[in-house]
Amino acid sequence: MLIRIQDLAKHIAGRTLFADASLGLGRRDRVGLVGPNGAGKSTLLRIVAGDDVADHGEVHFARGVRVGMLRQEIDPQQTHSVQQEAGRALSHLDALEREMRDLEAQMEAAGAKGETLSTSLAERYDQISTRFAHAGGYEREARVASVLAGLGFDEEARLRPLSSFSGGWLMRVELAKLFLSSPDVLLLDEPTNHLDLPAIQWFEETIADFDGAVMIVSHDRTFLRRHATRVAEVDGTGRFTVYEGNYDRYLVQRREMREHLLARKQNQDREIAQMERFVERFRAKATKARQAQSRIKALARIERIEVASESERRMRMKIPAPPRSGEVVMNLIDIHKRYGDNTVYDGVDLMIRRGERVALAGPNGAGKSTLLRIIAGALEIDGGERVPGHNVEVAFFAQHQLESLHPDATVLQELERDAQTDDVPRLRGHLGAFLFSADDVDKKIGVLSGGEKARVALARMLLRPANLLVLDEPTNHLDIVSREVLEEALAGFAGTLVFVSHDRAFINALATRVVDVNHGKLDDNLGNYDDFLARRAAQAARTATEDVPSEAAPAPAKTPADDGKQKGSAAAADKPNKAERAAMRTRKKSHDRVARKLEKIEAEIASEEEKLQAFSWKLSDPEIASDAVRLQELDAERAALQETIDDLYRDWERTSDELAALRDGLS
User: Fold this and answer.
1) Which among 6, 256, 265, 370 counts the fewest CB atoms within 10 Å?
2) CA-to-CA separations, 248 to 23, 228, 255, in angstroms, rounded
3) Is 169 within 8 Å of 103 (Cβ atoms)?
4) Closest among 242, 239, 237, 215 to 227, alpha carbons compared
5) How far apart (Å, rounded) are the C-alpha atoms in residues 613 and 601?
6) What share of the chain is helix, strand, coil (3-state, %, to 5)?
7) Packing angle between helix 92-112 and helix 119-134, nearest 10 degrees?
8) Helices (H), 113-233
9) What residues contact 257, with CB distance under 8 A and at least 6 apart?
10) What is the pLDDT of residues 389-435, one digit of tens each?
11) Predicted TM-score (pTM) above 0.85
């Protein structure tokens, strides 16, 4: 056991964040901390890291355990490079390297004088050089470059000064330092908030290979499904509960535990009601007074079972019904956009149709937000045409809108600033649809959490009905419950949606089309994010197969003079015998058969993927979306088709491996 957390409790301003929190962290454990914003997850991490103090309980560490916690400690005004800052994580190698160089100088000086090298000097050098090598000293520059590349820093960016980067990118540098320092335990507070989709993939691969323990606060359901070995819930009422397994298993266990608790509570409530009726009926009767008093004392001793309200989970965010738009909602034609000397787009086209849910994917800095702002009409273009469709009303949500909220205004006053006269009577109801109860509307913006501010901004944006929603990272700052509520609201939205998100579960739940934005190029893909990844993997595999070198060309024919030079047993040894020639013919036939089989599988995959694309178009049709029975039928057919495609890809992989082995046998 690397860390043992025992009976921790923390109280803030009279509120219990958690009590009796106990948890053991062993090597290779991956513990996900979940719960609503403000429940105490980050506080628990800080206590384990030693940055905060618990009111009760202890944290025990195994001897020699090194703990690394993600912190933002970089001065944004620093002028040294990203690579230099990341390299500081390996500064413990500097002393070893200096001693090595000193010993080498001593050995060189002894050799120059013709002196015999002392045994102690040689042994000391062997010890230091071995320690340096085992610590990765000879590969440290490559390690730094590899980690930074995984986090999205290209060669040019690695040499830029820290002062040229935003806070999110500086957090990536801190994450790089954390991984390079190789601690035994990683404590991470929502690290994927600062990562784009390619960097999240690298992060997951790195976590999977990490040999220590990880305790992570995360609202990324995909990450928790893939990597969590346990889920610890801080529920906001003071309870701390540990569930075995990943996020999906946590949901099942949590539901089962709640159902069991509700059943116990119902039984207890029934018993209490019976005792109270007895007391009420017989308290005044002398013959039953003693029994009544006994029951009164028993009632006082009962520890009442409390079940947390699920009202927040049952609430549904409501988006106003939009007016119907034309078939083509937005058409971008030959779009050009530059920032100074930096050309972002040099003639791209994009058409968006009614009912589509388009997710923009790609690395940070590739132009996703620029494209969103062009679609929303919030950014002027340098060339081309932006053509909105008939009756299109656009609503645009951007992260900077959170900063534009007035901290001294109440939630209600913030909406009143943008409301028209006929909107005012329905503002409270509108805010209720965005999870703000009667008392919440009087809270000052300045005291709200990031998630609450995001909901205010969304409520303000959707005050008037719009049939084209353009959303830039709408899930940032939202906890899992709020993300699921937003997902359900957008899934039921009858208009058109274009969005950027780094939450893969959110993209998969909504997207009918993924546009990969990569430095001025747009790659269009029907389906959700998993479909996009599968298609990209298949393309990479096909490319790899095509790049395999063809069979070696036959050797030039020998002349009679050449034949005359080879005599006796040597000539016989070089010439394939009858059995070898037969075996070669058999292998060639097998190769050709498997190659034809592979071509057939590829044709079947292409055909089935075309059918899947047709399903995606059908599912995006608003008329079908409103027909629950037809939608369920289509969804079942689509799932069966996807399973067929998955089977074909597995067959394709096996056949490709078989073909590669046969090709090796022919070479």
Assistant:
1) 256
2) 20, 10, 11
3) no
4) 215
5) 18
6) 55, 20, 30
7) 150
8) 119-134, 140-150, 155-158, 167-180, 197-209, 221-227
9) 241
10) 999 999 999 877 787 888 899 999 988 888 877 778 888 888 887 87
11) no
What separation in angstroms does the CA of 421 have from each of 395, 409, 603, 647? 19, 19, 61, 58
Please measure the distance between the N-terminal and C-terminal CA atoms of the chain and give it in whole angstroms: 53
User: Does residue 329 carry a pLDDT above 90?
Assistant: yes
Closest CA to 28 of 211, 223, 227: 211
CB atoms within 10 A of CB 129: 18
pLDDT tier, 449 (very low <50, low <70, confident <90, very high otherwise): confident
Q: How much is the CA Rg of the chain, to the nearest whole Å?
A: 33
Token representation of residue 99: 């001693």
- Whether 410 and 425 have beta carbons less than 8 Å apart is answered as no
Instruction: Give CB contacts under 8 A, 24+ apart, made by 46-49.
Output: 47/8, 47/10, 48/3, 48/5, 48/187, 48/215, 49/187
Nearest one of 557, 587, 582, 548 to 665, comparing CA atoms: 587
Amino acid at 622: P
* Contact (Cβ atoms closer than 8 angstroms) between residue 663 and residue 550: no
DSSP string, 591-613: HHHHHHHHHHHHHHHHHHHHHHH
CA atoms within 13 A on the CB side of 435: 24
Query: What's the chain's average pLDDT?
Result: 83
The answer to whether the CB of 336 falls within 8 A of the CB of 367 is no
Q: Residue 532 and residue 555: Cα distance in Å, rounded?
A: 45
Within 8 A by CB and 6+ apart from 272, the residues are 299, 302
Compute φ and ψ for 181, nearest 5 degrees.
-75, -15
Are 458 and 489 a contacting pair, CB within 8 Å?
A: no
- Closest to 194 measured CA to CA, from 336, 320, 324, 74: 74
Selection from 530, 534, 537 nearest residue 504 by Cα: 530
Residue 573 confidence class, pLDDT cut points 50, 70, 90: very low
533: its two tokens: 């990844």
Using one digit for the tens of pLDDT, what is the confidence trace for 3-45? 999 999 999 888 899 988 999 999 899 999 998 888 889 999 9
Q: Output DSSP code: residue 117.
A: P
